[in-house]
Amino acid sequence: MPETSPTEEIGRLIADEIFTKFGWRHCGPYNQNFECVEQEKHRKTRVKSHPGDVVFRFPDPYLGMDVYMHADLKSYAKSTLEKSDLKSILRDLAITVECANKSPQWAELYDQTDGNHVVHGLLFIYNHDQGYDKDFLSVLQQIGNGVTQLPEGKRLYVVGPERALYLYNVAKDISDLQGQQRLPFDDCISFFHPDLENTRIQTQMHGPATVEMLLSPWQVLRHRDNSGRGIQHGHVIYYAGAGDSVEEFLYLLDYIFTYQLHDDSGTIQIRIPNGRADAANTFERAKARYGDEYWSVQVDSQHQFQERLKRITCALVAQRIPQFSTVEIGLKRNG
What we know:
- This protein is α/β, with parallel strands linked by helices.
- The protein has two domains: about 160 residues, no CATH class; about 130 residues, no CATH class.
- It is globular and about 70 Å long.
- Strand 6, helix 5 and strand 7 form a beta-alpha-beta unit.
- The strands form three sheets. A five-stranded mixed sheet has the order 1-4-5-6-7. A five-stranded mixed sheet has the order 8-9-10-11-12.
- The longest helix has 19 residues.
- The relative contact order is 0.12.
- It is built from eleven helices and twelve strands.
- Helix 1 crosses helix 11.
């Protein structure tokens, strides 16, 4: 079993905080290697195994089966991240995923289903000194799509430094709203997955967020309180954009009405962790324009349409930076 340094441990702590809040379950051991079953193909002549930092599991409503995310968790300072060989890291993760889908040892360590599942790869990169200021997506795009050779139906997903911090703030905000009794407990929360043009929901399980949702421009949380605490039902939409323009909010409002997230009594809160200071005001202008220009395509009267719009609000989320002490982590591991 590989050892991890306190700095590397930060990546796991952040990932756990994020993904468990979105309904993912941790499976099996941390930091466990498993034997390579394609040693000649993968050129595993010296180290004949693949690493596994952590494996998460969630049910995919489109596939109708469980998805396992075999995760490589990185916690880098700016200088280390800038020098990292992402191409090599992704290649290694790709061959790990290939073996994970075939390996009896991997299944013995992590599989908690009847075998009807798929294993994808997740590269999670957290910048622990918050100094990285490059466009990570552009860096990733420069690597190109042909860097990895994955079996059909298997995928690699990358959560870069900016998205990792965004998801951390979303997870923290959900916990804060629950603590303020503005959201119900986790068992009364689910994530909304719409029927898509070419893909329909295969199961009625709407609980956890899919990895695609976590990497999309917004995440839609729906809630209905069964605890008797008097929390009004509705939706919370976390938006990853900055709220620069009326047009981007018009697009979001169109999504809300296209998929009928509104009803006669529920609320819709749009919350923006990375928003500009005037994003809420820009949203109000977008809402006024949407009410004037788009109401006629709805079955509602203009008055009913305006009343629905009033129940859609927008607010900024104060961004928080995780604080970890490598000394404290080291003491806990050695204690």
